[in-house]
Amino acid sequence: MSFVRARPVPLMGLAAGLLFGAMASGRCVGVGDGDTVSVMLSRGVVKIRLEGIDCPELGQDFGMRAKQFTSNLIFGKTVQVRPYYPDDYGRIVGRVIVGGRDVSLELLKAGLAWHYKRGRNDPALAEAEKEARRDKRGLWSRPDPVPPWEYRKPHRKRMDPGSRLSRTDLLVEGTPCRSENEESWMAF
Fold it and tell me: What pLDDT score was predicted for residue 68?
């Protein structure tokens, strides 16, 4: 297996070629953790934050297992990406599909992620988490697993506000995106 080391494309360069809400195809060239992957698209490498889920951090129980699961599922393979919006860390939040399988859904089914309910609340994702909890799969086999958003609180790092791009700088007219207050969805 060979590894590709490539520089991520700045989001401003990406905005011209990637329509939010439209599918794009590329090869997965990196897996940072369970819910963050790098995909080589026609214009370069883009970091994708899997939409609708939150995997344990690498330092948490099941964090490395989630990363390995994601890597086994998509690394080196051609994937479809449906980008939704940029996040505060310079990544594109979107769904990744490989061989007809939604990576976010597969991680939830395996019990390796929490359903992230802010924003787009997908009933299929909610049901997959519910079933994994009921069957005590993955992280649900442990009593009281700590959600990653609680684990991150004392370690929180944000992008320098001066370097952040606003969501409106990156949107294509008519595509879905959350508003700046993070509570509602709208089309710009």
Answer: 98
Q: How far apart are CA 83 and CA 170, in angstroms?
A: 12
* 19 against 9, higher pLDDT: 19
188 belongs to a structural domain: no
Catalytic residue selected from 57, 95, 129, 178:
57
Residues 6+ apart with CB under 8 A from 5: none
Active-site choice (91, 106, 129, 178): 91
Number of domains in the chain: 1
The answer to whether residue 43 is catalytic is no
State yes or no: pLDDT of 9 exceeds 70: no
Please report, for the domain that includes residue 27, its CATH number.
Answer: 2.40.50.90
Is position 186 within any domain? no
The neighbouring-strand residues paired with 40 are 27, 45
Contact 174, 188 (CB under 8 A): yes
The verdict on residue 27 lying in a domain is yes
Q: Which of these is catalytic: 49, 95, 106, 129?
A: 49
User: Catalytic site residue 152?
Assistant: no
CA angle 151, 157, 161 (to 5 degrees): 145
What three-state secondary structure class fits 118? coil
Does 82 participate in catalysis according to the annotation?
A: no
